[in-house]
Amino acid sequence: xxxxxxxxxxxxxxxxxxxxxxxxxxxxxxxxxxxxxxxxxxxxxxxxxxxxxxxxxxxxxxxxxxxxxxxxxxxxxxxxxxxxxxxxxxxxxxxxxxxxxxxxxxxxxxxxxxxxxxxxxxxxxxxxxxxxxxxxxxxxxxxxxxxxxxxxxxxxxxxxxxxxxxxxxxxxxxxxxxxxxxxxxxxxxxxxxxxxxxxxxxxxxxxxxxxxxxxxxxxxxxxxxxxxxxxxxxxxxxxxxxxxxxxxxxxxxxxxxxxxxxxxxxxxxxxxxxxxxxxxxxxxxxxxxxxxxxxxxxxxxxxxxxxxxxxxxxxxxxxxxxxxxxxxxxxxxxxxxxxxxxxxxxxxxxxxxxxxxxxxxxxxxxxxxxxxxxxxxxxxxxxxxxxxxxxxxxxxxxx
Length: 399
Ligand SMILES: *Cc1c(COP(=O)(O)O)cnc(C)c1O
What we know:
The chain has helices at 13-25, 28-41, 52-66, 84-91, 110-115, 136-145, 197-210, 215-231, 234-240, 263-274, 276-294, 323-335, 352-355, 366-374, 388-398; strands spanning 45-49, 74-78, 95-99, 121-125, 149-153, 161-162, 165-166, 173-177, 190-194, 300-302, 309-310, 316-320, 375-378. It has 15 helices and 13 strands. Helix 1 (13-25) crosses helix 10 (263-274), helix 2 crosses helix 10 (263-274) and helix 3 (52-66) crosses helix 4. Pyridoxal-5'-phosphate is lined by residues 51-53, 81-82, 84-85, 127, 153, 155-156, 177, 179, 190.
């Protein structure tokens, strides 16, 4: 049976194959990718790494090395975000601290944030989950006021903006990811963008000393990328989805390599980046149609967008108001071939590998608990039919 993958980017098989061959023999596509990412973020510099999480480790280490106050060794992160974020904080030798999020907007809860003790905070990290911008103007001003850095995590938000400014371009340093479920994908890959000369010098020297990817990694990931380009199609994804590959699960993992980005994969990301506007408008059209189709449902609640937000809609997040109904709705959607997910299964204070490192006062985050218990994501990529909202609505209403 056909199955709509929970997230993904259609990759044109032949053009991607040609791009990989070009990238394998020339630096030019990877350099062009870096230039375009920096430019579109409004930054001067971009460094490319093997993954987003590796980029985040390097970015945090670089921020730490230019920080004059040695007591600033904490990183304030949303209590509900990707598990790679606390893993990167710990790998950088820093202390994760949590701040609760608003279940209405998924941005930091403003009151909790105002009360946070930031005297030891090196950086605060945004999340922009599902491509929906956080309150980045506020976070930028707040970080500056408190003498800390803003790390704008746009792993899911390439192409999004708020108040006319690109997500990933706020604060001191921004992050993009080219992993499988992101706005553009080359299976692996991550980018840091920044402008401050002392920071970019640190990033550049760390990029040079981190070494390239092995030939073996470059080859296997290129093969995976070609397979992905075929398998994301709903007809084939239905077969893949039945194999026990652990697709769609997000275990905590902190044993990943730090290295540069394969030239061959970067060439595919560069190819897809040229199509970012059309990828984003395809997702936006689907997301907005679904939002309006589902708006009047008494079972679902929509995410509230902040003023001026233009999301990239990597997925459409909705909330199942009665959390007990969620598993039933998701399993019926999945049975109907729709890649609905419960997103990250736990808020970070309930992930044992993270919680061990947290002080007592960070363990209570009711907003993040509510998000984790009620969120459901729906696919928005270009393989999603435009009338998916109607089908989802029927299944939700019958549940
Ligand atoms: C995916 C993701 C990352 C890490 O990126 P990878 O390329 O998967 O390592 C970081 N932050 C967020 C919010 C993400 O969604």
